[in-house]
Amino acid sequence: MRRANAVRGTVLAVGALFVLAPVGLTPRGCGDLSGGRLCIEGPVGGVGPFTVRYEQYQGRPGIAVRLGYQRKDDRITAFPGWLGTQQTWHGRAERTGRLNTAPGECIRGVMEYRDRTYVTEWHCS
After folding, report:
1. What is the pLDDT of residue 1?
2. How much is the mean pLDDT over the chain?
3. C-alpha span between 111 and 40 (Å, rounded)
4. What pLDDT is stored for residue 14 in this prediction?
5. pLDDT given at position 27
6. Residue 100: in which H helix or E strand, if any?
7. Based on the number of CB atoms within 10 Å of its own CB, is 98 exposed (0-12), middle (13-18) or buried (19 or more)?
C-alpha cells in the first residue's frame, strides 16, 4: 500500500510539473516559424561545437533544408556560413560544426528552404 501511494504521489508531482510549465515559451537561441522551430546551440564567446536544428511541428511532410549560422560583432555582420543540407527525419534536421566565437560576438541560426531564408534571434555572449 505504501509503495502504491509513493508511486501515485510521484506521478502526481511529475504531472504537476507539466501542467505548470509555461506554454509558448521559446528557448534562448531559438525562433518559432510557421512550420516548426529553428535553434542554434553552442558556446557563444568561446570555441566549440555549434548545432543548428530545425524541428517541424507534427503532421508536416518531410522537407530538405539548408542549415547554417550568421555571426556579428560591433563592427560587422557576416554572410551566412552553411553547415549543409539535410532532409528532415521524423520531423528533425540537424547539422553541427566547430566555431571559434569571440567574447562580445553574437550568432544566430539560419535556415534556407525553397529560396527563403529564416533566422533565429541573435544569441550573444
Report:
1. 52
2. 84
3. 11
4. 34
5. 80
6. strand 92-100
7. exposed
